[in-house]
Structures are given as structure tokens and as C-alpha cells.
Design goal:
Layout: H1 2-9, E1 18-19, H2 25-35, E2 47-53, H3 56-71, H4 77-85, E3 92-98, H5 109-129, E4 133-137, H6 145-150, E5 158-168
Bound molecules: flavin mononucleotide (FMN).
Flavin mononucleotide is lined by residues 11-12, 135-139, 161, 175.
Length: 192
Amino acid sequence: MLMLNTLESRTSTPAVQLVEPAPNKEQLTKILQAGLTAPDHAAMRPWRFITIQGDARNQLGEVFAQATLKREPDTPAEKIARTKQKPLRSPLIVVIVATITPDHLKTPEVEQILSAGAAATLIQLAATASGFGSIWLSGPNTYHPDVKAALGVAEKDQIVGFIYMGTPSKPAVAKSRPELADHLSEWHGPAN
Ligand SMILES: Cc1cc2nc3c(=O)[nH]c(=O)nc-3n(C[C@H](O)[C@H](O)[C@H](O)COP(=O)(O)O)c2cc1C
């Protein structure tokens, strides 16, 4: 029942509303261990989690700014300044990486990425269950080779997202969710 309540009540928290304290070491260990329970075809463990806190967030901002300028050299200075500040919005960032084994006999690349996505979701749920807020963010820099290189992510691997985490500064606003009926059908055999 408690578990279902967590599932039903989880909402993302805007990154600017995530403040100190971030999960401490012990809490973070538990939260990240939830990611290790992700469904995983052929036990490949295709995940890596990278935590970024404190001043390292400034360095991530610099990496994002340089990647943005490389992608779009004409980006106005104000936008670059804002980009540098982005990682500072929350006290903790967990980078979720899919570590890819190309041409695996049983597990195509898409399944390895899906498993890393499942790990990300489980980490968000564990954060919620531990009383913390989070949001899964990406953006074009997520896939930029320079960002991957700066984070020590191999070219063959994929960053699936940045989970910003901390304590929500405001109570969560209940969200209306889609109607299940709009996303559900029952199959009775081939269409014709
Ligand atoms: C792969 C992935 C990437 C995402 N990237 C962004 C993003 O860059 N910016 C953003 O505002 N939301 C992004 N989201 C959506 C948010 O994480 C969040 O799910 C959305 O705001 C809906 O809120 P909810 O989780 O409370 O339903 C992304 C979600 C996924 C699954």
C-alpha cells in the first residue's frame, strides 16, 4: 500500500525548488541501490551512476557552456551565463549512463538503454520514498561528445539523463494524470 502511494504521488520537482539538504551518504547509497534493481536482460548491468555535488557543479556548468558554444557558436552571452548556472539549481545531480555492449547476442542496444531508463525511474522513486524531490533533465548537451568525454563517459555509451535531487522547498502540487482508458486496450487477436 505504501509502495502504491509512493508510485501514485510521485511528481517531479522543478530543479530550482530543490534545495539543501541533499540525501546524505547513507541515504544516497540506498537511493542509488534501488537503481541496481532495474530489469536487466541477460544480467548485463548496463548502468553507471555519477554523482556531482558542490563545486563540481560549477565545472559541469562550464562544460555545458563550452558544448553549447561548440554546437551554436552565436549563442548570446546571457544564454551562456544562464547555461553555466543550470547545474547550480539543485544540491545534487546524478548522471545516469547506459553502458552499452554493442552487437550483444541477446540484448540489443535499445534494451540496454531502456534498462538504464528504468534505473533512473527507480532512483527517482527511491528519492521520493526517502522524502527527497527530483527531476530527470536532459537537453542537447546530454548527447554532446564533449560533455560525455568530460564526464568520463565512453563514446559508445549513452547519458540517459541528469537526475537533479534535493529537498523540495515547496509542498508538491497534486498533478492530474492521464486517463488510463486513453492508454489501454485489450487485444483479442490479429486485426484481420
Ligand atoms: C528522458 C527524459 C528526459 C527529460 N528531459 C527533460 C528536460 O530536459 N526538461 C524538462 O523540463 N523535463 C524533462 N523531462 C521530463 C521531466 O523529468 C518530468 O517527467 C516532467 O516534467 C513531468 O513531470 P512529472 O514527472 O511530475 O510527471 C524528461 C523526462 C525524460 C524521461
